[in-house]
Amino acid sequence: QGMFRNPVPDKLVQVTGLGAMAFILSSGIIYVSGELLHRARVEIENQKLMEASETLDNAMMINPFNSSILHEAGQLALELHQKTQSPVLLTRATEYFSRAVDLSPDKVGPHLGLGLCLSSAGRLDEALEQMEIAQSMHPYSRHVSSVRRLIENRQAERSGQ
Predict the structure, then answer these.
(1) Cβ 36 vs Cβ 56: under 8 Å
(2) In the structure, what pLDDT confidence band is assigned to residue 159 with cuts at 50, 70 and 90?
(3) Which of 11, 43, 78, 114 is buried deepest, with most CB atoms within 10 A?
(4) For residue range 102-152, what is the model confidence (pLDDT) as tens digits?
(5) Best CA proximity match to 133, nearest among 95, 96, 98, 90
(6) 141 near 108, Cβ under 8 Å?
(7) Distance CA 119, CA 123 (A)
(8) Other residues' Cβ atoms within 10 Å of the Cβ of residue 70
(9) Could you give the CA distance from residue 124 to residue 127 in angstroms, rounded to a whole number?
């Protein structure tokens, strides 16, 4: 051991090093996934929807805990479903929005998107539950109110038949 003894215990140095590595790694993941989300939004604006879908898939692989990525993927899948009426896309959109709600229950967008998906699937009671949650978060949102009224009207028509 000699005269030059390290005043900092080796375990503390190891733990600090591991913590620093974890911080750098997580920062890199957040940065790269954020850049991919931005790229996907640009691709969506330019109507490159399939490319945007692939970009969002890559972003989700890198960071599966970012509710904004899941929300954007849900929006895109729902939009593609509305164009193609593909049940697979509706299922995918519903899963994305559900995961986004699980990760960020206090964000309005995922509840609204999930409500739209459930409504498209004919699950009107569940859709209205999501719209009520969204409306309780933003009571003065005309968009949320309008979507909720449309679903309520659809439900009234269905029960009147």
Answers:
(1) yes
(2) confident
(3) 114
(4) 999 999 999 999 999 999 999 999 999 999 999 999 999 999 999 999 999
(5) 98
(6) yes
(7) 5
(8) 27
(9) 5
pLDDT above 90 (res 15): no
Amino acid identity of residue 51, one-letter, is E
Look up residue 97 and give its two tokens.
Answer: 């929005």
In terms of C-beta density within 10 A (0-12 exposed, 13-18 middle, 19 or more buried), how is residue 129 classed? middle
Contact criterion met (CB below 8 Å) for 121 and 90: yes
As a whole number of Å, the CA-based R_g of the chain is 22
pTM of the predicted structure, to 2 decimals? 0.83
Question: Which of 6-33 are b and which e, b meaning 16 or more Cβ less than 10 Å from the residue's Cβ?
Answer: eeeeeeeeeeeeeeeeeeeeeeeeeeeb
Contacts of 62 (CB under 8 A, 6+ apart): 29, 32, 33, 36
Tokens representing 152 are 């309520």
Strands (E), the chain: none
DSSP string, 41-87: HHHHHTT-HHHHHHHHHHHHHH-TT-HHHHHHHHHHHHHHHHHH--H
